[in-house]
Amino acid sequence: MFLRPFALISFFAGSIGSFGAGVYGPARHFVPSGECGPEGLTPAVATKVIQDAFSGAFEISSQRKRSADGFVMQSVTPSFETLDLNGDGRSDLVVVARYTGSHHWREGKMPFNFGTPNFGREQPDNRSIVWARSVSSSGESIDRQGSQGALFLLIIFGGRGGCWQESGEKDRFALANAMPFLDLKLTSYQGRLRQTEAGDSGPVPAPKLKGEAILFASAKTSDGQLIFWTGKWFNWYPASGVDGSN
Length: 246
Description:
Shape: globular
Mean pLDDT: 74
Strand order of the largest sheet: 4-5-12-15-16-17-9
Largest sheet: 7 strands, mixed
Structural class: alpha+beta
């Protein structure tokens, strides 16, 4: 009789010790400490993180294929990378992915934020940002974009201990129309941007980056664009605004 309380204490102490070896994220699964942050990032870990964070709605894919015959229309490499987009010192996970069509949510019920990037230094409003909604600012739904084989840009801000598994719904983003329809290389850019022109808009004032930016650069042309965090939402800026002196 006197041994039972001691046994119970030993059991709970052992459980707490096991929990201390890792962390529990929003998906309530055990995360080995070696899988937190960029040092432990492998294709298998990235796949698992995206699977859990976006409820299986996306899968990592660097190719946009034509549905009729599987012809590759666009390639983006690498398919995932780590950058500090919001400047908080934690690595954020950036992934190129396609929509699986396995989930359909009611408006406002998605476990992540969905929308399209604004331009330049524009501030988000109800027309250009949709927090956890099923339709983007351009009126394009995830289902419509996904059925056309479009590639999405997924971003998860780093959570506690550098774990993306510890990031909540407000720190997960799925962006449509975030990259030019070209073969692209995904890399990072940090530094100043210069004023440049965008189509018929004429000279556009250069935004100031809060952290690193995602740079999609064409391997064959000078075309490309940057995706960066404004503090409220993601905006894009022409790659021609990259300051070569940095």
